[in-house]
Amino acid sequence: MTGPGRGPQGVYDQINGPGPQAPPPNSGLMQGAAASSPPPPPPDYRNLGAGQAKADFAAASANGGWEFDQEAMDKVIKSLEDCLKNDFRRAQNEAVWLDQIKPPGEEVGSQGYVVAANKSGAEYKNFLQSAEQYTRAYVDTLIQIRTAYQEQDQAAIDALRQIGKVD
Question: CA-to-CA distance for 142 and 76, rounded, in angstroms?
Fold first, then answer.
């Protein structure tokens, strides 16, 4: 599209914003280069786990024929708590050394390998921590649901059922 004030980049600019701007003087950036945006904040795994448990409950109890099964809920909670206590602990104990690798030699290849291996180990440890937070929040929410049913707190039960529903 061309016209007053529009060059051949008019449509591109409408979709993507104006073309590249010149970097500020003495910024160290080359012409045409753009600074990268900061990384997004990490996800909040506790909120994700709690939200998923509520959404799962809302989906399961959406029809009128669903009934709360105390024994089944206890089994799920126990299974997840055992996983947190045993599986996550064991994985975290085994991962302790995964970001403390030392190079076998002082040459570039060994040092480069160690940097990559330690970074990978640190990311794995972050993953384990996030997965544990998610699972802990999921279990805590299931316990809240179970408690609401045990106490027959109808307002809490109704509120939990409404999560995930679209009006």
Answer: 9
d(CA 45, CA 35): 29
The model's pLDDT over 56-93, given as tens digits with 9 standing for 90+, comes to 888 877 776 677 788 999 999 999 999 999 999 999 99
> In this structure, which amino acid lies at residue 149?
Y
The strand pairing partners of 6, in sequence order, are 3
Yes or no: say if 141 and 49 are a contact pair by the CB < 8 Å rule: yes
Q: Are the beta carbons of 89 and 135 closer than 8 angstroms? A: no
In the predicted model, is pLDDT for residue 2 greater than 60? no
Contacts 24+ apart (CB under 8 A), 141-147: 141/49, 141/50, 141/53, 141/54, 141/57, 142/53, 142/57, 142/73, 142/76, 142/77, 142/80, 143/77, 145/53, 145/57, 145/73, 146/70, 146/73, 146/74, 146/77
Q: Is 50 exposed, middle or buried (0-12, 13-18, 19+ CB in 10 A)?
A: buried
pLDDT tens digits along 17-37: 555 566 667 666 666 556 677
pLDDT one-digit tens code per residue, 139-161: 999 999 888 877 776 776 677 66
Q: The dihedral of CA 19, 32, 39, 116: what is its sign?
A: positive
Numbers of helices and strands, H then E, in the chain: 6, 0
